[in-house]
Amino acid sequence: MTTDRAGALPAAWRKLFLLELPLVLGTVVFGVLAPRRFLSDAFGLRAADGPTLTLHFSYLGVVGTMVFWFYARLLLAADFHLPTFRRYQEALLLGDVAVVVTWTHAMSSAARVWGGAVAGIALASVWGAVRLVFLLRGPGSART
Q1: Cα three-residue angle 137-6-11, rounded to 5 degrees
Q2: Is 136 helix (H, G, I), strand (E, B) or coil?
Q3: In sequence order, which ranges of 1-111 are alpha helices (DSSP H)?
Q4: How far apart are CA 74 and CA 81, in angstroms?
Q5: For residues 138 and 65, is the Cβ–Cβ distance under 8 A?
Q6: Of 58, 42, 55, 40, whose CA–CA distance to 103 is shortest?
Q7: Using only C-alpha atoms, what is the Rg of the chain?
Q8: Contact call for residues 64 and 103 (beta carbons, < 8 A)
Q9: Are 97 and 128 in contact (CB under 8 A)?
């Protein structure tokens, strides 16, 4: 991978994106240590069977590795590569949109999972807006 210190992430952006890491890590740790409570609080599931827990832990594995570990590696890398980071933010923005659409649908369904839905929509909306501003106006955009 090419190292391009001229394309480094400005400190303000780095600090802002670093705020997301403890949120993701906390979610993963909570989901691993208290899976039934996590599924109840987030999705309104009162009972979680084997297949549900398998799906849950698979999801946490992806979130833990791709959204926490890889994100942290990108942000803290000595050889920071801005184009890779921008593409990663694009992918996370698409994920934010998916979360908003999914939780909006969940709120209108018979399940009425309000607590998890409101939290999911709020966090995905905030981080999606941050990512959108970064992609449109941040380093490496057509405006910089």
Answers
A1: 60
A2: helix
A3: 11-18, 20-33, 35-43, 50-62, 70-76, 82-108
A4: 8
A5: no
A6: 42
A7: 17
A8: no
A9: yes
- Give the residue from 6, 3, 8 showing the smallest Cα distance to 86: 8
Other CB atoms within a 10 A radius of the CB of residue 77 amount to 14
* 60/31 Cα distance (integer angstroms): 7
For residue 5, the 8-state DSSP code is G
Using pLDDT thresholds of 50, 70 and 90, give the confidence band for residue 104. Answer: confident
What is the pTM assigned to this prediction? 0.86
Q: CB neighbours of 40 closer than 8 A, spacing ≥ 6?
A: 46
Contacts (Cβ under 8 Å, ≥6 apart) of 93 = 128, 131, 132, 135
pLDDT of residue 110: 57
What is residue 120's predicted lDDT score, i.e. its pLDDT? 87
